[in-house]
């Protein structure tokens, strides 16, 4: 199994476009006899909304129904991925619905009408607060041995697929905001609720210098004020907890 993971990791590192990502997902599915795939990432753009990146070959009729009825709010697979980091076997979704009353098991039954009989999903997390999932499904029941092998390999390659998506999105936007070390230091203490004067005392600089760096961040991030800049810096993953 190690060689299988190594092979797919190496292939994932060659992905630089959406088409290459789609081809990768199709080839991975073929190797394990899995017909349908879905790989998606929600990237926070504001506190109230997120941008969706998705590649898939699910039946279009099913996707239309899924989004029109906002199934993502009660989908047991999504509910698991929102709060967990382990793979979810679709055969276990009834158990999830028993402990999470907000889940609707009927979504899984509806999916079967479109040939999505059984599947495996792995949650995806990003450094900037991104959330997503990596799914494969088929029109037959997946055996236990296959479930364990496939889910283990999917779990091993999903961080590399996240990096591939990051490369694709960075290439598409053409924007890579860089903050200096001093700007990050000023924003870190601003995020902790410190005033410009308090931050200046901590860093051993003048209050004017702190305001200069904070204003630079406000401009770079396209923010309207300090609080807005803090939110954007956190959403983009520029500030990470100290360890």
From TrEMBL:
Keywords: DNA-binding, Transcription, Transcription regulation. InterPro entries: Sig_transdc_resp-reg_C-effctor, TF_LuxR_autoind-bd_dom, TF_LuxR_autoind-bd_dom_sf, Tscrpt_reg_LuxR_C, WH-like_DNA-bd_sf. Residues 172-237 form the HTH luxR-type domain. The keyword Nuclease does not apply. GO terms for biological process: regulation of DNA-templated transcription. One of its GO terms (molecular function) is DNA binding. This is HTH luxR-type domain-containing protein.
């Amino acid at each position: 199994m190690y060689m299988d993971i190594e092979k797919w990791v190496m292939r994932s590192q060659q992905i630089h476009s959406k088409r290459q990502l789609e081809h990768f997902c199709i080839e991975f599915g073929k190797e394990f006899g899995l017909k349908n795939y879905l790989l998606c990432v929600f990237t926070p753009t504001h506190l109230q909304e997120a941008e969706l990146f998705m590649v898939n070959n699910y039946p279009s009729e099913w996707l239309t129904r899924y989004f029109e009825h906002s199934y993502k709010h009660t989908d047991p697979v999504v509910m698991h991925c929102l709060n967990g980091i382990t793979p979810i076997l679709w055969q276990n979704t009834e158990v999830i619905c028993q402990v999470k009353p907000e889940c609707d098991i009927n979504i899984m039954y509806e999916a079967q009408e479109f040939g999505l009989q059984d599947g495996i999903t792995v949650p995806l997390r990003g450094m900037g607060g991104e959330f997503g999932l990596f799914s494969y499904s088929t029109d037959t029941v997946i055996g236990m041995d296959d479930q364990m092998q496939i889910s283990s390999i999917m779990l091993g390659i999903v961080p590399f697929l996240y990096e591939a998506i990051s490369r694709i999105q960075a290439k598409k936007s053409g924007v890579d905001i860089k903050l200096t070390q001093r700007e990050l230091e000023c924003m870190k203490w601003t995020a902790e609720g410190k005033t410009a004067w308090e931050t200046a005392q901590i860093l051993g600089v003048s209050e004017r210098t702190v305001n200069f760096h904070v204003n630079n961040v406000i401009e770079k991030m396209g923010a309207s004020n300090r609080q807005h800049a803090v939110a954007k810096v956190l959403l983009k993953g520029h500030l990470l907890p100290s360890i």
